[in-house]
Design goal:
The chain is built from ten helices and 19 strands. The protein is α+β, with helices and mostly antiparallel strands and 346 residues long.
């Protein structure tokens, strides 16, 4: 194989992409810079060049201990020092760094490892009574409640997850270049680095924020836009935002404005420790959560019974204790029905 030669001949668009990428990752961008970047990224060819640069950077980060990459990194640092000492302007330094990264990508092609740039899709699910925690490839953590399903697609422009059923908590690894989105029904939760949970409960979507901040948008938001533009910060500024300690509740298939109210963070994350905490919760919602841990399902006689508001703390998986508790405190009674139970008003 012939030796590779690193030159300073770089496509101008690629040079601009490298410059913007470095500005984003080192946190040096002002509001004016962000607006200028948004305008630059709106050009489709620019968006493609930026996506290529981001993918290249993530690939090199993942292979940082490979001997060939270490050699290229050393060469880049030496070249950086030489240019800095000679007073070359910052843009030329960035140009050189991109040339080194470009050469590294060619080397990786020879090594046959550029396939890691591809999207990675996978489904994670739990059965009744099971909880599961998964570390995703981007460093984010996914915790699933019982009888829950999440589809994960870690793509080039966006980390896209779909809550198919149940409840999950997401501790998101920061990556400002790839928004982290969770779709549930007709709602999309958008985050960069934060901690929140999403739950499909009855006809509603519940979003609880523990740390950081998220925006909640309709599923049709940004439809027709390039993938790199859909969830940029400037576009999301006008969308509903959550702050820590607040919960959003919205119809899963509706477009109405969501309801936002405070919640107790400890109660919101208690299910991860095996406790079900109900605070002014309808009996219908409480039963749905209890059923995620019981192979003897509880059914409700009618909607009026389901509308009864209950409170209490119960151990996940102990449906009998739940039934004993609510029948002692509320005007309801329980009878056996098939393999489970039925609750009705007295």
């Amino acid at each position: 194989m012939k030796d590779s030669v690193i030159t300073d001949t770089v496509d101008p668009r690629a040079e601009e992409a490298a410059s913007w990428y470095l500005s984003l990752t080192d946190g040096s961008m002002s509001e004016a810079d962000q607006a200028q970047f948004d305008d630059w990224l709106a050009v489709p060819d620019n968006a493609d060049a930026f996506a290529d640069m981001a993918r290249m950077s993530r690939t090199l980060d993942g292979l940082g201990e490979e001997p060939d990459i270490i050699s290229l990194r050393t060469a880049a640092l030496c070249d950086y020092e030489d240019r800095t000492d000679s007073g070359r302007r910052r843009g030329e330094v960035r140009k050189s760094l991109f040339a080194v990264a470009l050469a590294a990508s060619l080397l990786l092609a020879f090594l046959g490892v550029l396939s890691v740039w591809g999207d990675h899709s996978q489904r994670y699910a739990t059965s009744i009574g099971e909880r599961r925690t998964v570390l995703l490839d981007d460093g984010s953590q996914l915790a699933l409640d019982g009888d829950s399903t999440v589809d994960v697609d870690l793509g080039h422009y966006r980390r896209s997850l779909v809550l198919v059923r149940g409840r999950a908590r997401f501790n998101v690894a920061k990556d400002p270049l790839r928004p982290f989105t969770v779709t549930a029904g007709n709602r999309i939760v958008v985050a960069t680095g934060t901690s929140f949970s999403v739950e499909l409960l009855g006809r509603d979507v519940h979003v609880q924020l523990f740390e950081g901040h998220v925006a909640v948008v309709n599923r049709t938001a940004g439809r027709g836009m390039a993938p790199s533009e859909q969830f940029r910060p400037r576009r999301l500024a006008s969308e509903p935002q959550l702050t820590p300690g607040n919960e959003m509740v919205a119809l899963a298939q509706g477009v109405e404005a969501p309801r936002v109210a405070p919640f107790q963070i400890g109660a919101g994350q208690a299910w991860q420790d095996g406790e079900l905490v109900f605070e002014n919760t309808t009996l219908a919602s409480a039963v749905e959560r209890v059923n995620r841990y019981s192979r003897q399902p509880i059914a409700l006689a009618d909607a009026q019974t389901g509308a009864i508001v209950v409170n209490g703390v119960f151990r996940a998986g102990d449906a009998r204790a739940f039934l004993d508790g609510v029948t002692a405190l509320y005007p309801i009674e329980v009878s056996a029905e098939g393999d489970g139970w039925k609750i009705e008003r007295r």
